[in-house]
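Appendix B, Record 12. Input sequence as logged:
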Amino acid sequence: MTSSAPPPDVNANPADLDISCPLCEYNLRGLSEPRCPECGYKFVWAELIEATRSAHQYLFEVHRRKTWSFWKTLVSGLRPGKFWKTLKPAHRGNLRRLFLYWFITLLFGFAAAAALDQVFKALLPTLARYTTNAYFYPYVIGPGPAFPLSSSGPDSVDLDISYFHLRFHVQQVAVIYAGAILIWPAATFLALLIFQQSMARAKIRTRHLLRCVIYSADGVIWASLLCLLALAAYAACVLSAGPPGFSVLEVYLYLCAAIVIVFCIRLGVALHAYLQMDRPFWMVLATQVLVALAVVTALVAISVA
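Logged structural output:
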């Protein structure tokens, strides 16, 4: 954002000139152009001074009303373009509160993953009444034909074996979901650090990258609430009329993929609007390739070991 507005008058208010760039902390004293020569950050003098002197209106990092500001920040993030235009790098921040925001976000995701495992653990005896071993997975993974459970003959089932495989499959999905909401944003942040020296020719402070990543990752809360609703609907159907025609595990996996996609889109918006990056979505794509390669490498190493 460029502006023809002049810098503050030295004689009228000399203190206003002793201002650092909010992204790289380069001293902007004496500049005639509203653009940081170190990192290229463009600003409007009046907006920069105002943001430096005042706190954000509702941001969870700084607002005293913690519960209200948390939900206000969360809901405002649904419109990332508008959110990142209101949040300026010069706005004061609090790393402790920022990490608290991320911790609360993770709690929602871990609660959804734990609920999946515990609910299926409680539903196993009920599910076993509707399916044989051969048709046990269709009711978990997707719709399939049902056969009554008989005590002998070709339809008999070793419940211990079927329970073990089902619990293992459910726990796999729970671990994937919990791992995605924790590892993916953290790995993306580390990948962004690799590009830190080349990002708009800037030595951007780490706290700004953290802001972009954490506020872009809070969609986990909405996805986890949807997962819990789907799990509750699935459990109600199983207990009342038998397994429904949808797989709650598929819902978890689809929402897990949606979390990553939405996170990447929102991160691209943040890099463009907040950090003024050139080609932000290409940068996000590059980081995701690095993260995917790292995850695949780790999984291969674990499987071999």
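Residues 1-5, 9-15, 132-161 have pLDDT under 50 and may be disordered.
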